[in-house]
Amino acid sequence: MEKGTRSHLNPGVAYTFAAFLIWGFLTLYWKWLGAVPAGQILANRVVWSFVFMIGVLLFRKDLGHLIVSFKWLVHQPKQFFIVFSASVAISANWLIYVWAVAHNHVIEASLGLYIIPLVSMLIGIVFLREKAGFLEIMSILLAAAGVAIMTLKYGYVPWLALSLATTSGIYSLCKKFILFEANIGMTIETMLMVPAAGVYMLIIGSQTPIPFEIYSPSEGALLIGAGILTALPLIWFAEGAKRIPLTMIGFFQYITPSAAFLIGIFIFKEPIDPVQFLSFGFIWLSIIIYAFAEVRK
C-alpha cells in the first residue's frame, strides 16, 4: 500500500472504530432510559443532536458555512434527496432499535445488527463495484451462515431485523455520496428532522399538566446526553466513510453487535443457548478471516 493511501486510510479506520464502539455501548444507555417511550427518545435525540451541532459550529465559527451550504443544497435536488434519504434512514434505524429494546425484541434486534455488515458489504460489491477477494467472500458467506442459523432457530422472517439492516445500509450508501464535511452534513441531517421531532415533543408536552415534569431530572439529563452521544459517533462515521471502502465499513460494523453481545452476557447476565453460540462462532470466524485479509493487503 502506498504511503499516501495508508495515511488517508488510517484516520478513517480510527474514526470508524470509535463510532461503532460507542454505538455498541449505547445499549447500556437505552437500558437506563427504559421508562421513556421510543418515540420520545427519538425526538429528543434529534433535537439535542441538532443543538449540540449548532454549538460545535458556533465554537468553530463555522455557522456561516452551514447557512451557505444549506442554501446551496436547496438548489441541488439530487444532493438534497441523498441527504434527506440519509436523515430519514438513520432516524428510522434509531426508532426501530429503541422500540425493539423497549418491547423485549432484543434477540431479533441483535440479529439485525449482525445482518447490517452483510448489507453494507453487499452494497459495496454490487452497487459500488468495490473489489472483494476470496477471503472477503468467504467471510461474508460465513457470517451469512451464522445469521441463517439464528433465523432458522426462531422460525420466521425477522422483519424487524431486516428493517434495521436495510435502513443502516441505505445510510451507509448515502454517506458515500454526500458532499459536505462531517460537521456540516451531520447538522443538516438532524436539522431536516427537527421540525417533525419538535412538533412531536410539543404534542407530548401539551398532554402533560406540567410540561417540565414529563421526565425526571435524571431522565432529562440522559436524554440531553443522548443527543451528544448520537452526534459524535455520526461525525466520526461520516469522516471514516469518506476514507475507507464500504466493505471495510461492513467489517467494523461487527463491533456494535459484539459489544452488545458482551454486555448481555457479562453485565445483563443473559443466558446463551448452544444454537446461539454456534451462530456467534460462525460470525466471529468471519471477522477473523476478514481481518486477516485486510492485514495482508
UniProtKB/TrEMBL annotation:
It is found in: Cell membrane. One of its GO terms (cellular component) is plasma membrane. It is a multi-pass membrane protein. The keyword Cytoplasm does not apply. The chain crosses the membrane at residues 12-30, 42-59, 80-100, 106-128, 133-150, 156-174, 186-208, 220-238, 250-268, 274-293. Residues 11-151 form the EamA domain. InterPro entries: EamA_dom, EmrE-like, RarD. Pfam families: EamA (PF00892). Keywords: Cell membrane, Membrane, Transmembrane, Transmembrane helix, Transport. Its main location: membrane. Belongs to the EamA transporter family. This is Transporter.
